[in-house]
Amino acid sequence: MASTPLPYLPSTTLASLRHPLSTHFASMGTVIMAASVLVWVITNFPIAAGAGDPEAVLEHSVAGSIGKFVEPVFKPIGFDWKLSVATLTGFAAKEVTVSTLGILYRAGGDEAEGGTSLRRALSSDPSWSPLLAFVLMLFTLAIPPCIAAMATIKAELGWAWLGFEFIFLLSVGWVLCFAVLRIGSLLGLGGAALA
């Protein structure tokens, strides 16, 4: 019995996917790199007077000001100003959340060469816990997608649907994470997340 191709499936080969995939990955790399550079700039400027302490420079930077401004909205789901900034930058692309955390926690380099990994930097933060890590991942998953996807939604469905989608997903993500943090804390999984 000879196999016949199914008429409703396109004949896709690896060669036919090579150009679209390489174009997509190149453009995403550009977005992630540009967003990471922007995050670095807003975490290092303006330089506070007499800034010898890197933490003081960070708190008085543009990113610190933005984070402190939006922190009251994110505090009920366990986020401090650093996690709030990382979440906001994730709207450029979800992957930028991780690079922002690396910049905010001054993580980078090879551990073998004396650098601090993001994992080690986060674990040394007294407010960090496995429950908070789960809530951050859940919120990042539930909130509206990246700018490119939102632009597509706007082009296909218009401003009204984009606004609805943005508010709905942001609200669902916030409520879901609030519930998970509270239930996890009641079960004793919270650590210092609610302190």
Q: What does this protein structure show overall?
A:
This protein has 195 residues and is mainly α. 65% of the residues lie in helices and 0% in strands. The chain has one domain (30-186).
The total domain count is 1
Average predicted local confidence, pLDDT: 80
Which strand-content bin applies to the residues?
under 5%
Strands, total number = 0
Helical content class: 55-70%
What is the rounded Rg?
A: 21 Å
* Contiguous runs where pLDDT drops below 50 for at least 5 residues: none
The largest sheet is:
none
Q: Please tally the helical runs, counting DSSP H or I stretches of 4 or more residues.
A: 9
- Choose one word for the global shape: globular
Secondary-structure blueprint:
Blueprint: H1 14-44, H2 54-59, H3 62-74, H4 81-89, H5 96-104, H6 118-123, H7 130-142, H8 147-157, H9 159-186
Helix pairs in contact: 1-5, 3-4, 4-5, 7-9, 8-9
